[in-house]
Design a protein that fits this description.
homodimer, alpha/beta, five-stranded mixed beta sheet, 12 helices, 14 strands, globular
Chain lengths: 330, 330
């Protein structure tokens, strides 16, 4: 019996969310649909140009941890906040969701990370992330007992942006594998893949990572091809299995000798795509660590993703276990 | 030509919003549907028991100021934040909405006010407000030029809770009336009326206040009667006119020699009633200060209220001018 279903590791970020039109993105040189890294000065400038906003705890792997807990799974999180007001909010929200979160907050500067997320009328989100205290996450933050006792350790590719988080990942992966557990990652963003392609492939080919989550664009970026078919055949060789999301086209589960296509869950109106991939991973991993088959895992992932994109913010307001049960997915 | 349509004065509060069930309210002795004043210790206790939340700028009169601006009106706001992170968020959001807000922030303690708002499955909100730096609003914060140049000065009855805000109100009302302007207030909450009934009636009978906004419960509380008819006949004598909201039953505009009933705008699903009265006032006052007749004013108010209760948070995400125009209300 393990203590946790999923241990998630990622940048601990509070989202600041506002609507804008496409012209605003162009005028401010924000790459649409992507995660743009910014420094403190640009954060101040963009905030001064941003419309009225709401704040909500976010961060890719943090959203996944919250999703797993909302499904009724046992999840834990490693991530670095500062001992400031946004850090208090972040810590409150993830613990209130039932996630075990004990990473020691940073005393003093830099402040807790925030991402200014601009949502365009089509529902697409464009993120502008100031990493703040996330740059201080390191090997000293690894809690060995959690790494040993989680069925799956899941981390975000975004962790290659801060300088020392990759040390924490390699250490955690070693502990997890030593305890007979599995390690998963998300490729996070096509531009993130561009920055760290060789390292990500190395993680997979050295079996530091067993399971890969990616959307179609990230997967194509990883193998530098325009052909989804080629990319799928490539990742088949590089990991135990991969779950590839394709927005309204559903998702594909790829293992050495099998390819399973699963339909998307229909959506009335796309309000805000923030958290779609993170919640897909939460549903998939909840199912996987609780013994469901691949098709069922992918359906749970699609269900959680469909819920989160029909509301503003990166974490569904509903209880996912209850909602999935009512909708016949659990 | 005046510089502003509406000057709003109120407690500057950041809302922290989460869902809960009715049992939670009972277990924590929270009066449902009302504004519960709390101190710093109880704020910490309730936050520790609160589920995952989102943060959004709020405060009754602040929501009204934001609503007037969203309708395309010229609005200003007086309210006291502290120079901390929540104060930065509050200031950003109200200015980003186009509201003139220049009240000097408090340096140091107490921190910016926050209200923990619990939303039950029926959409009703129960507020728990820690007033923080709002207790420091006083006559020294009155900007005479704004008070002189706003067609209507509007303030919340909640301002009788902090110790010196009433001085600011009396000073502002004097300046406004001296410049030939009108003064409006909202009764805010039935329990607030209970606390300050005599003072509120005195404000009206001394013509410090010309226009009154109230919901049915507040109006009945003011005149200590269970009869709406009696209460309406009483307020008719006590002010220039009153706008009385009745949730799904619409609203009533009451002047010396006229009573106009206006239907509510239909709503698909009540998600969160936070801000309903504030947004009604924004639509009404936008219309009133732009020369529309009473019926039209009430319709705009109901339209804005209907929008805000179909989403989470106290200020509509939509541009109200655009939405009202598309729906045929403007």
């Amino acid at each position: 019996m393990s203590d946790y279903d999923v241990l998630c590791i990622g940048n601990a970020i509070v989202d600041i969310i506002a609507r804008c039109d496409d012209d605003f993105l162009i005028a401010n040189a924000i790459t649409k649909g992507s995660m743009n890294l910014i420094d403190a000065d640009r954060a101040e400038l963009l905030y001064s140009r941003m419309g009225p906003a709401i704040e909500a705890s976010g961060g890719s792997a943090g959203n996944t941890a919250a999703g797993v807990a909302s499904f009724g799974g046992r999840s834990a999180f490693f991530g670095k906040v500062s001992d400031d007001h946004l850090g208090t909010i972040y810590t409150h929200d993830i613990r209130a969701q039932g996630v075990a979160f004990d990473t020691r907050p940073l005393a003093g500067e830099p402040p807790t990370a925030r991402s200014m997320i601009f949502v365009t009328p089509d529902g697409e989100r464009s993120m502008n992330t100031y990493l703040g205290s996330c740059v201080e996450l390191g090997a000293e933050d690894v809690e060995a007992s959690k790494a040993e006792s989680a069925r799956v350790t899941y981390f975000e590719g975004y962790l290659w942006d801060p300088p020392r988080a990759k040390d924490a990942i390699r250490l955690t992966a070693g502990i997890a594998h030593g305890a007979g557990r599995e390690v998963a990652m998300t490729l996070s963003d096509p531009f993130c893949v561009d920055r760290y392609r060789d390292e990500f492939l190395d993680l997979m080919r050295t079996r530091t990572v067993d399971i890969v989550f990616a959307n179609e664009h990230e997967l194509k970026s990883l193998y530098q091809t325009e052909s989804l078919e080629l990319a799928v055949d490539s990742i088949r060789q590089d990991c135990l299995f991969a779950a590839v999301t394709r927005s309204e086209k559903g998702s594909i589960c790829v293992s050495r000798d099998e390819t399973i296509e699963v339909e998307a869950v229909p959506v009335e109106e796309v309000v805000d795509t923030t958290g779609a991939g993170d919640l897909y991973a939460s549903g998939f991993l909840y199912g996987y660590t609780n013994g469901l088959d691949m098709t069922h895992c992918a359906r749970l992932g699609s269900f959680a993703a469909a819920l989160v994109i029909q509301q503003i913010g990166p974490r569904p307001a509903q209880n996912l276990a209850q909602a999935a049960s009512q909708a016949g997915y659990l």
